[in-house]
Amino acid sequence: MKSFFTTSVIAVLFLVSCGQHNTKENVYLEADRIFDQAIEVHDEVMPLMGDIMKLQSALKEKKDNISDEETIQKINESLQNLENAHSLMMDWMRNVTQIPDQSEVDPDASDFISPQEMLKIQEQSLEEVKNVKIAILGSINEANSLMSDL
User: Fold this and answer.
1) pTM, rounded to two decimals
2) What are the boundaries of each domain within the chain?
3) pLDDT averaged over every residue in the chain
């Protein structure tokens, strides 16, 4: 009877520990999926960075030939919005955190990030890159509209 009890306790502990490992794995998998979504958004708008540069050059050229203060102000605002969108993308790329390979994760390391923290980081990163996309598309549309009015 004592042996049965001991075996049962060991079996329960084993199953609980497997369940925790599986949950940890699932959290990392979810974080990895969200990271992939963020990269997809990045890959969608990154090619537009060249459009931002072209629009900045074109607006600066137009600005040099305009004397109307109101139009110059609109151009300056559009240039600033383009620059802000560009900076947002550069900042996001500099700060993005990739999911570490689980075989290389050391829970005792000083820079260890728990699965829950990694998930939170990836969710925040996805929101940030979505905001970058909105800023890029908005600033390009604004600049194109202004260019067609000039």
Assistant:
1) 0.78
2) 31-149
3) 84
